[in-house]
Amino acid sequence: MTAIGESPATGRGAGPADFGRYGDYEGHRRRPARGGPGVAAGTGAGAAAPAGAGGAAGTGAGSGEFVRADYPFRGRITADGSSGFPAEAGRYHLYISWACPWAQRSAIVRKLLRLEDVVSLGVVDPVRDGRGWAFREGPGHGLDEVNGFSFLSEAYEATEPGYDGHVSVPVLWDKRSGRIVSNHFPDITIDLETQFGRWADPSVDLYPERLRSEIDAINALVYERVNNGVYRCGFATSQAAYHEAVTALFETLDELEARLAGRRYLMGEAITEADVRLWVTLARFDAVYYSHFKCNLRRLTDYPALWRYARDLYAVPAFRETTRFDHIKRHYYITHGGLNPSRIVPDGPLIDWEIRDGAGKPGRQEHGTGPDGTTAGDQRP
Known about the structure:
Strand order of the largest sheet: 6-5-7-8
Low-confidence stretches: 1-11, 29-57, 363-381
Number of helices: 11
Number of strands: 8
Distance between the termini: 42 Å
Structural class: alpha+beta
């Protein structure tokens, strides 16, 4: 019997992950549309959802194509409270995994906007067996200090008794009503960026009105072909489905390389929501997706502009401090037994993420002004 985890079974928190007893996580199958608590009108589980957490996979019938699970809880935060969930300091809690790219987005935005004292944060164990995301004590993750849950599925059950769908991160939890507001990650970051202005750093605008249509367009392309594209490669069950996905992925990376050859960030000289969304896939690319998901035509480090761009973002504390390569590798290589039956986590690759000055010293950005208004020389990890 295989058991992997840092904490013994106790009165609080989950016992060690046990794949011999519980198997791999399989809670990601699609189910019929439905309404329910926390579901915004017209956006039930049957609505198309560009969503998922690390490893939430299904396949299209007969095609071998990867299909995302549905993400049904789509409540929205509004500054005026018209949605029923008003923006308030201390009311909301984010449940995340450092391993999950979709969840990391929320953590990056929270930190960029300096909302750490406004929205609290809890982190699950990156190793997930058949019981789903769990709260255990360990490096970079811990017990649930808000509700005392052992498993994140308890938050879903508390919101909708009998819930039998996919249990994903991130989850935005309302402490006051004791229920999930949203598990639909695109909405969570947009709401943090647009509805918490009373507390957010006024110098940071990640979703400026004049650029929203362009940001939305590039986000749609990046989601379909890159963010979700790597999963379409990794979880394809036919050669044709894999070939289609990997071709689209690298065609889009080539387009992004050309775009970034002439600009610092995707929208120009300032970090936006678009950069947050692309970053989380780039950060995992060489360490996981290149080998684990067979995205191996080229490495990120083979793209001069994309690699410069990724290291530039890594030098910003909000990106660097929310990127836990240990969590990322342990989650993917241990959790996906179908792709890695041995559950062995590779030691490599050895990658130097630091941007170095002329003297070879790390820690400074190459040029420009950081998102908090400081100059390049002041931006230190």
